[in-house]
Amino acid sequence: MPTISVIIPTYNAERSILETIESVRKQTFSNFELIVIDDGSTDRTLELLSSVVDERIKVFPYENAGGPIARNRGISRTTGEFLTFLDHDDLWTPDKLELQLAALQQHPDAGVAYSWTYYLQENGESFHAGEPLFFEGNVYSQLLVKNFLDSGSNPLIRRSIIEEIGGFDPEFPYCADWEFYLRLAEHCKFIVVPKHQIFYRQSSGSMSSKIESMEDFNVQACEKLFESVPPELQYLKQQSLAHIYQELAHLCLVRISDAGGAKQASQKLQKAIRLYPRILLNKKTLTLAIKLLLIRVLSPKIASHLLQLSSKNRASRIQYSNSERVLQ
């Protein structure tokens, strides 16, 4: 019986699915099963999946039902003692499963192990490291403020905890990960693997209307989540909303390539600051402010080129460092 079950929900993933699966097959921990739930793809996803020869991989096609239901279908197909999820365009470092499993085995009182995140550009040519965080134990209040796990591709979870709390809630299509992690945090302790191990791919070129839809869904989700939050923690709501607008400001810069993206980013960031002025002390807020200043002073095109060059240089240094560790 496999120790770990990896669940990948896919939908029209022909551009990335083979690379994503390969990042699982290259794991230093090999006693896993890989459950791929195809959520009604209409491209070559299933054809590409059929070309992968590995007895640990099982593919289950379904009609389209959305991400939360696809993940729940994956959970129902698993047999491992520990479960983890990987979005079809994200990647892992080779030691992700090994180190997260070791963390949970060393801390039997913890139910979830998580790692730090790299933000990967859509073309895969550059990335930057997310902020290192050390939240452990009861992390419920920290998760209320922000989904610091960043994506659905991060945590390793004990099966027993999922059986206790249930799966993903389809009523939170954009924030199902966040809502799921909050329920986990209500029932178990978290442990951190202090290493960047998740490559979270950032889409580019999305229309501004998509950003506005994300704003609506995230704000509505925040409002709904806080309906059941204890009175003594309700004061965190403004801070939580501020972090939503901070992230929207970041997405405006990443996904909207013209000058309108910078304008929208500035508006979102100003709203974040009005909601929670102390967010100005946050490193990400300062970074966004510097980027917006560069765009205003240098023009969007030149500033974008400089920021991309800086990101590629960081990626090269990280890749070189990783190569040295492998050689040692």
UniProtKB/TrEMBL annotation:
InterPro entries, A to Z: Glycosyltransf_2 (IPR050834), GlycosylTrfase-like_prok (IPR019290), Nucleotide-diphossugar_trans (IPR029044)
Molecular function via GO: transferase activity
Pfam families, sorted: Glyco_tranf_2_2 (PF10111)
Residue ranges occupied by any Glycosyltransferase 2-like prokaryotic type domain in the UniProt entry: 5-246
Keywords on record: Transferase
Keyword Methyltransferase in annotation: no
Name the UniProt record assigns to this protein: Putative glycosyltransferase
Originating organism: Allocoleopsis franciscana PCC 7113
